[in-house]
Each structure stands twice: as C-alpha cells, then as structure tokens.
Amino acid sequence: MEKIRYFDHAATTATKEEVLKEMLPYFNLNYGNASSMYSIGRKSRKAVEEARQKTAVAIGAETKEVYFTSCGSESDNLAIKGVAYANHKRGNHIITTKIEHPAVLHTCQHLEREGFKVTYLNVNSEGLISLNELEEAITPQTILISVMFANNEIGTIQPIKEIGEIAKRHHIYFHTDAVQAIGNLRINVKEYNIDLLSMSAHKFYGPKGMGALYVKTGVDFEKIQDGGHQERNMRAGTENVAGIVGLGKAIELAYENFDKYNEKLISLRDYYISQVQEKIPNTKLNGHKEKRLPGNANISFEGVDGEALLLNLDVKGICASSRFSMYIRFFRPISCISSNWITKPNCTRVTTCNIWR
Fold first, then answer.
1. What's the pTM value of the predicted model, to 2 decimals?
2. pLDDT digit string (tens) for 251-301?
3. Are residues 48 and 188 in the same domain?
4. Residues facing 319 on adjacent strands
5. What is the pLDDT of residues 22-79, one digit of tens each?
C-alpha cells in the first residue's frame, strides 16, 4: 500500500500519543461527572483543574481566567457576543479586520443585525493592519477590538502588543483569536494587554472538539448559552473531562523545547521558500517575510490550476486541501486560504507549515 503523506495540518493535527494516553482513563475508568460530589466525580474535577492550570501557565494567565469550550469558534462567539451583550449600554461599536476567521466575521455580522456597528479594518499587501487606522476607527461607542494573533491564511503576525496598548489606553476590551498562534508563538496575555483570547486544541496536537477562552479578571462579559452552572456559570454543559485533559497535556507539550524547535523550524521554512523561488518560475511569497508564523510559507503559482494540482498530488499519496488555493504544511498546525487582496485570483497558493517535534 502506498504511503500517505499528510500535508494538511492547517486543517487539523493528529492527537499526540502522549495526549491520548493521558485522556484514555477519563473515558471508562475515571468517568465521573466533574460537577458531582462523590469520589470519581472529584477525581474528574481535579483533572479538569490541573488542565486549567497548565493552560493558564502556557499563556501567562491566572488559573481562574481560563474557561473550557468546545472549540475555537465557540470561544470566539463567547468572547465577542459576551462582551457585546454585557456592555451594550456603554457602547455598540466593535472593531475587527477583514481577514478574520469566519468565526469572528460571522459573529460580528450577527451582531450587526442586532443593532451593533462594526468597523472592518483593511490590511496591506503583507496582511498587516495599520495601527493609525485602528486608532482613527475608535469612537466613544467602541467597546471591543478583535484582531487575530496570526493569520490563518498567510501566517502574518499582527502587532498584538501595540494593539493591546491602544486598547488599554482607550479603555476598550481587546480580544484576539489565537487559534493559529498557540503552540507556535510565545504568548503572554498580561504583557500584551490581551483581555480575551481564543484557542482550539486540535491545532496543537490535542483532541478535536475542545477549546478554551481566556478572560482577564474584571472583564465584563455575559454567558451566551443557557443551561447548567459549569465553568463558573459562564459556559453551560457537562464538562468534557477527557477533552479538557487532552488540551492541557497538548499545550504543555507544545511549549517543551519550544525555542530549540522553532529555531530549526524557521531555518527549514526559509530554506523551503528560497528553493521554491529559485527553482520554480512565476512564484510569489504571500504575507510578511519576517512577521510570519515560524512554519508558514504561503506561495502563489501563477497560472496553475489548483484543483488539477490537488488531484495530481492525491494520486501520489499526498493529502492537501484547496479553496482557490492549496495548503501544504510540513507536519504541524497553521493554515492558509484564498485571499483576493493578496494575489491574483488565477493563482494557486501553497502553504507549507511546521515540522513534527
């Protein structure tokens, strides 16, 4: 049987064996409901809180500031809607960008239908927002700024620290969708003045269907889901103990030997980019050359049909994905999709990202 080469870690990653091993007992041995008072319930609760602590440590947060969710999309919804609903008497204006993940864009569009006003910032040819335009967009009614940490298409890293400083100066909450950044960049929410941060476990070798939301102590936000009183009454639903344990272990592993790993990864990324540009004509690197995720290389091939290329790769046992662009990643999370503001629409984009630890 021909060996399959999986190059679509932009979409998801395999759950690491160490993560799976830690999760397994909570399916059929330590299966107690974490909200129950008896012994096996308390054992589950202890595992949940240990995972919460690991997650908090990884991003420089306090343990009580971490809320577990089902995915990055739910975290984005909870962050944006939660702040909007809780602060609508103070203002109804939100600032975001045109290149956010649909979980953010569609949430903002939903809020617009409810009477909120949203400013969608442009980006330049490298995918960066203008800090001046951000500041000019702020009004007395602005209650939230939501800008992704790193772009899920071209890997461009936004000036998050500077955005946080602007938000703090104007007394505006700052949310960042860090789904593509967790495990690939060092993040300290306090240093960057981040008030809310979203993540998803399956992007850093954790289980699918598991996410988390950081909410800084003192942020005024409301729950958007009715039900029980789980997650300190901010996210209803029986705790997915196995998934939570998996997220905690995965984020812990992601930051072991982080600097050494990233140094090697950046070297490989830059070598790959140089080889493609040297040996293949009519190519273009998309995104910022330096301010990009360590394992991300998004390249356009002018005049190449993306679907045909995808099918030919599949014949050779290479799994990739395409949406007017094609993502290929070398063994680790980060993504890229079609962006008309970056390249000509008849180009095929190839993303190469991250190497297995």
1. 0.89
2. 999 999 899 888 998 998 899 899 989 998 998 899 999 999 998 878 887
3. yes
4. 6
5. 999 999 999 999 999 899 999 999 999 999 999 999 999 999 999 999 999 999 999 9
Tell me the CA distances in angstroms from 249 to 10, 14, 94, 145, 169, one per residue in order.
Answer: 20, 14, 34, 30, 36
What Cα–Cα distance (Å) separates residue 111 from each residue in 77, 93, 114, 184, 244?
10, 10, 5, 31, 29
265 plus 334 within the same structural domain: yes
Phi and psi of 74, rounded to 5°? -65, -40
> How many Å apart are CA 243 and CA 56, to the nearest integer?
16
The domain that contains 52 carries what CATH number? 3.40.640.10
Q: What is the CATH number of the domain that holds 290?
A: 3.90.1150.10
Asked whether residue 305 falls in the same domain as residue 164, the answer is no
Full residue range of the structural domain in which residue 97 is found? 17-254
Total count of domains within the chain: 2
Write the CA distances from 261 to 86, 87, 100, 119, integer angstroms.
Answer: 41, 42, 28, 38
